[in-house]
Amino acid sequence: MEKPMAGGVAAQRERLAKGLRAYGASFTELGRRFAALLGVHSTDAFALLEIASSEARGAPLSPALLSRRISLSSGAMTALLNRLEQAGYITRSREHTDRRIVTLRSSARVRELADDFFRPVNERQDAILSQYPPELLEQFEAVLDQLSTTMDDALAEPPPGS
């Protein structure tokens, strides 16, 4: 028999949401500090992180995909990409068979700066995660994925009362 949660599912959701908000706030602050190191706006730094992490996963982004990830209009995205390209942080290339599709790539320099900047916190987080069984972490990933999907679905709907 499963142990009942203190306060029920709604209370558990609130505790998890509080923890996720705190983690998100810390992640945002870390991103702001990375932006300051690079001398760019925090939105530019988060775009760089999205570009580099997508590249590392073997799924480089197009400007349209990046725009959806960081919620920018096409005009704002063009200005952001122009700034990052002029700073030498990214390149735009046409690698796809459909030559209209632009692929975003991060520079070796920005990947090196990001690795150096984030390595200490990544190592500490890896040490924490290594204390838990892989099956539990897989369950946690599944829960986070489901919660994110639920949030995305809610954001796709018209706001209540509109």
Task: Explain this structure.
By secondary structure, the chain is mainly α. The protein has a single domain, classed as Winged helix-like DNA-binding domain superfamily/Winged helix DNA-binding domain (Arc Repressor Mutant, subunit A, Orthogonal Bundle), CATH 1.10.10. The protein has six helices and two strands, in the order ααααββαα. It has helices at residues 8-38, 42-56, 63-70, 74-86, 108-129, 134-156; strands spanning 90-93, 103-106. The chain has a two-stranded antiparallel ribbon. α1 crosses α2, α2 (42-56) packs across α4 (74-86) and α3 (63-70) packs across α4 (74-86). The longest helix has 31 residues, at 8-38. 12% of the residues are buried.
Task: Report the top-level CATH class.
Answer: Mainly Alpha
Indicate the CATH topology. Answer: Arc Repressor Mutant, subunit A
- Number of separate strands: 2
Q: Output the number of helix runs.
A: 6
* Rg over C-alpha atoms, rounded to the nearest angstrom: 19 Å
Number of folding domains?
1
**Class per helix and strand makeup:** mainly alpha
Average of per-residue pLDDT values: 91
Q: What is the overall silhouette?
A: globular
Strand order of the largest sheet: 1-2
- Outline the biggest β-sheet: 2 strands, antiparallel
Helix-strand string: HHHHEEHH
Low-confidence segments, given as residue ranges, are: none
Query: What proportion of the residues form beta strands (DSSP E)?
Result: under 5%
What's the architecture in CATH terms?
A: Orthogonal Bundle
End-to-end separation in angstroms reads 44 Å
Oligomer: single chain
CATH superfamily: Winged helix-like DNA-binding domain superfamily/Winged helix DNA-binding domain
Helix content: 55-70%
